[in-house]
From TrEMBL:
Native species: Micromonospora taraxaci
Family from the record: Belongs to the binding-protein-dependent transport system permease family.
UniProt keyword list: Cell membrane, Membrane, Transmembrane, Transmembrane helix, Transport
Biological processes per GO annotation: transmembrane transport
Topology in membrane: Multi-pass membrane protein
Name of the featured protein: ABC-type nitrate/sulfonate/bicarbonate transport system permease component
TM segment ranges: 21-42, 81-103, 115-134, 140-156, 200-224, 236-257
Amino acid sequence: MTAYTGRIATTQRSRNVGTRIAASILHTLGLPTLLLVLWALVATRATSQFFPDPLTIAEAFRETWVGPAFVEDVLPSLARLGLGVAASIVLGIAAGTVIGLTHWLRELLEPLLEFLRAIPPPVLIPVAMLLLGITDTMKVVVIVSGAVWPILLNTIEGVRGTDSVMTETAQSFRVSWWERLWFLVLPAASPRIMAGVRQALSVALILMVISEMFASSSGLGYRIAYFQRNYLIAEMWSGILLLGLVGVFLAVAFGLVERRVLRWYHGIREVNRA
């Protein structure tokens, strides 16, 4: 009887897991599938050549990006994006931590930071071209000029928001400055920092495309602009589709990293909600 009851419970749990997986898949793919169906229906009735149907775009995607173009255009773009994001993370966290911990420095730099933050990064592309030439370094600098701000500002606010009671307690126990920074300040600021990195990924992807459209002979942005200038409409849409897929991949990958880094934070929130 006990074994039979155990089998029933196991079967019920398996069904519950299967139901949750199916619901998750439906929740994730339901809206994109519906939009694709609507797109196909509208495209079949449209007479404009600038609005191809999904099957035409899918065929152009396979012919355009599955092959040499992946190595010649996609990989260089991803390399620039990765370098720009990595540099933004290092600069943003380092500078944000110093500014957040130093009250007089924060007040001194605040007007300058607000001024620089208000400058749209795309307008810096001509300046970067003059100073650095049409190089990968120029494109990485353009990416950093925009992506660093969400990380920097979120780091400053996260460091400023560190619990003063915990800081004073650590000082009373003669915990060294480096230990307080590593084990108290940065962990306390990490939720804000990760939120800044999430925003920076979107900004970096946009600036990667813009910098390649302005001054490049390779990359996703360059190739999409090339297709547009030559009226290769399906190929242009396939490039836009690829950019969307890159954005989805970045969001999913970052979500996995964020859950691992902030596991302690989400655990505390779950305990508080219980």
